[in-house]
Design a protein that fits this description.
The complex is a heterodimer of chains A (about 160) and B (about 500). Chain A has helices at about 1-15, 15-35, 50-75, 85-105, 105-120, 125-150. Chain A contains six helices and no strands. In chain B, helix 4 (about 60-85) crosses helix 5 (about 95-105). In chain B, about 60% of the residues are buried. The radius of gyration of chain B is 22 Å and the shape is globular. Chain B has about 500 residues and is an all-alpha fold. Classes of the chains: A mainly alpha (about 160), B mainly alpha (about 500). At the A-B interface, helix 2, helix 3, helix 4, helix 5 and helix 6 of A face helix 8, helix 9, helix 18, helix 19 and helix 20 of B.
Chain lengths: ~160, ~500
């Protein structure tokens, strides 16, 4: 008897993972903000200090986080979809690569490297397509951003 | 009054008809249509990306181009919706419902033509409303003080949270998060660092373009990179003759145009909502207003005309609160607002007096832009269609590069690029968890302003919250906000009850 109740409870949470996960993150963020903001001088209502508004907002956020818990409890099942891990990692890594390479190596290498990394996001892209895109885009980028628009980013830097 | 308008338009034409302004305007509308046609990248992302590149030109030039992108996209977005069942942007999702069936019935040309004409009508009436209402609103707004601004911003946020969301609680949570993120940086009044955590670049606050691109642009790319195939556009021949609607069509949609435009104007003026909401409401209204509801979803031409008219009129009228009050009509307006502020142009009731060339130049550029769009769109329909067959895997790396370079050029700061990563991750998380980024961005933009107005209002009233209710304009906004809350919750409650009855075979619409 108790195992089936436990199963039902587990299923309830899994079916509504979207709502509960979201609520948990909201509440967590609210607590974090509240902790930080309560360190700032609050002042009074007549003369609001820097801490007044953030404390009030984070408090409200926590309340609404719990409101979301309640809403999720009574709502219909809506589980989390499978995240696109590969795309996510590839895209974010591509931006990291761009950020690191831009000032060290210049615009063209940064574009080339990040396009190469980002092409990993789509598993249908072949190596040759990735390399072609990266070369073409780095040339285009140099042409559009530096030549046509006159931005002061070095194209290549040793 | 008429003489005044002509004098103003003369100033406007003088400003708008310079070579630089004209070319920026036309580039903007062409780019806007192009972006609008492409699914997966919308006007917001484009405006945000190009924003940093307009810093070195005068404010009116930059606004003309960015605005052109904005309302230009409202023309093009219908194309992919009609031909491929893929909306070019959120505001065009509803066009798929009747536009795509029309193209399946071989009436793609008529649908596209109707969309363009409706867009034009909506824009023109929108410009008329802009020109007449802005002076009225400006003189009205001179009576505004801190409590009124606060209440109006609260109204804007409430509408953003409640009208566009399935779950208002999520909407409010997003607004609150946005407000908190807006606080990051240095407090104007006290000089304290808030939420800076010892990172010097954070002391100036979070870069709005980095946040916006991270929340809107990056998740799109992540979600679509592995998914969208090469688009299969097969429109066949589209000749000019085949595009013209029949007389029966025109009889059907002529009132849809008026209704759609009115709905668009209303939501455009209301801060916090605009092109995202108006087309949906307009579609629902058309359905209810039609004699035979069952035609909808199967190629009813009103289902294309009304939403198109409404998203264009909303786009134009969204400038009204933005320019007169400095309160963005929607998220793209928030970006344009920051452009103005960076250039030292302060929107507000005195904008028309202090910067008449900017205001009227902008208005005239809207006229030019829309006329150019009609001329552009009709012959170029074939080209847009061919464009839609560029495989996405070529497109998305280019989008990422644009995002990265665009963000970097604002402050020459690599830190901003890393911000994009952080917010890109957060944005993707939000996508998975069902949270909308738009209310967050609205809160982010309005946060510091709201705090300032709240502070001033309470200092003035010596801590008395009643000031918001005692002042008539302020209380009106708050009542409107309460009405929106009530109506939305009521509608949700009814829907929840109805769905409980569905199982028993109840035949409710």
């Amino acid at each position: 008897m108790s195992s089936s109740a436990l199963e039902r409870l587990a299923r309830h949470f899994r079916d509504r993972s979207k709502g509960y996960a979201g609520a948990a993150i909201i509440i967590g963020f609210g607590i974090f903000a509240l902790a930080e903001a309560s360190g700032y001088p609050r002042g009074s209502i007549q003369r609001m200090g820097p801490g007044f508004f953030p404390v009030a907002l984070s408090g409200l956020l926590i309340i609404f986080g719990f409101g979301l818990v309640i809403e999720t409890c009574v709502s219909r099942p809506d589980p989390l979809e499978r995240p696109a891990f590969r795309s996510c990692l590839a895209v974010l890594a591509a931006i990291v690569v761009f950020g690191m390479a831009l000032e060290r190596f210049g615009l063209a290498p940064a574009v080339m490297l990040s396009v190469l990394v980002s092409s990993l996001a789509d598993h249908r892209v072949t190596v040759r397509q990735g390399v072609t895109s990266s070369v073409v885009l780095s040339l285009l980028a140099a042409g559009i951003f530096v030549e046509a628009l006159g931005l002061s980013i070095p194209i290549v830097r040793w | 009054m008429t003489v005044d308008i002509f004098a103003h338009l003369a100033i406007g034409m003088e400003t708008a008809f310079s070579w630089m302004n004209l070319s920026y305007c036309l580039i903007g509308v062409a780019l806007g249509t192009f972006i609008g046609v492409l699914p997966g990248i919308g006007p917001f992302a484009t405006v945000a990306m190009l924003l940093p590149l307009t810093f070195h030109v005068p404010p009116e030039t930059s606004l003309m181009m960015l605005a052109g992108i904005y309302y230009g996209a409202q023309y093009g977005g219908a194309t992919a919706a009609i031909l491929l069942n893929l909306p070019g942007s959120v505001s065009h999702s509803v066009i798929c419902l009747d536009g795509y069936p029309m193209s399946q019935q071989g009436r793609a040309g008529v649908a596209l033509f109707t969309a363009t004409i409706s867009s034009f009508f909506g824009s023109m009436v929108g410009i008329l409303i802009l020109v007449t209402m802005t002076p009225l609103l400006a003189s009205f707004a001179l009576k505004f003080s801190a409590p009124e601004y606060f209440s109006l911003m609260a109204l804007g946020l409430i509408s953003a949270a409640f009208i566009t969301q399935a779950s208002p609680i999520r909407g409010i949570a997003m607004i609150l998060v946005g407000l908190l993120l807006g606080i990051v940086g240095t407090d104007i009044t006290s000089g304290n660092y808030r939420f800076v955590f010892g990172f010097p670049p954070l002391a100036e606050g979070l870069n709005i373009v980095a946040v916006a691109m991270g929340l809107f642009g990056v998740p799109e790319v992540i979600a679509n990179a592995g998914r969208i195939e090469r688009s299969a556009a097969r429109p066949g021949k589209i000749s000019l003759r085949s595009m013209l609607p029949t007389w029966q069509d025109v009889k059907r949609f002529r009132f849809s145009l008026l209704r759609g435009t009115a709905i668009g104007a209303w939501f455009g003026i209301l801060p916090g909502t605009g092109t995202a909401v108006a087309p949906f409401i307009s579609y629902v209204v058309e359905k209810k207003a039609a004699r035979d509801e069952s035609r909808f979803g199967k190629g009813a031409i009103e289902g294309v005309a009304a939403p198109e008219a409404s998203n264009n009129s909303a786009a134009i009228t969204a400038f009204i609160p933005t320019l007169t009050l400095g309160i963005p009509g929607d998220v793209i307006m928030a970006l344009l607002l920051s452009v103005m502020i960076i250039h030292g142009v302060f929107p507000g009731p005195l904008l028309m007096e202090n910067n008449p060339d900017l205001f009227w130049g902008l208005v005239v550029s809207f006229l030019i832009g829309n006329i150019a769009l009609v001329i552009l769109n009709i012959p170029l329909i074939g080209i847009w269609v061919r464009l839609l067959s560029i495989p996405y895997h070529v497109l998305y790396p280019a989008i990422l590069i644009f995002i990265c370079v665009g963000v970097y050029t604002i402050n020459n700061s690599v830190f901003d690029i890393y911000l994009v990563i952080v917010f890109g991750f957060i944005g993707y998380l939000m996508l998975l968890l069902g949270f909308e980024p738009a209310p967050l961005l609205m809160g982010f933009v309005l946060g510091p302003m709201m705090e300032e107005h709240l502070r001033r209002a309470l200092t003035f009233s010596r801590g008395d919250f009643m000031i918001f209710i005692e002042r008539p304009i302020s209380v009106t906004f708050l009542i409107l906000a309460a009405a929106i809350i009530f109506l939305t919750v009521h509608r949700q409650y009814r829907r929840a009850k109805d769905s409980g009855h569905d199982a028993s075979g109840d035949n409710r619409p």
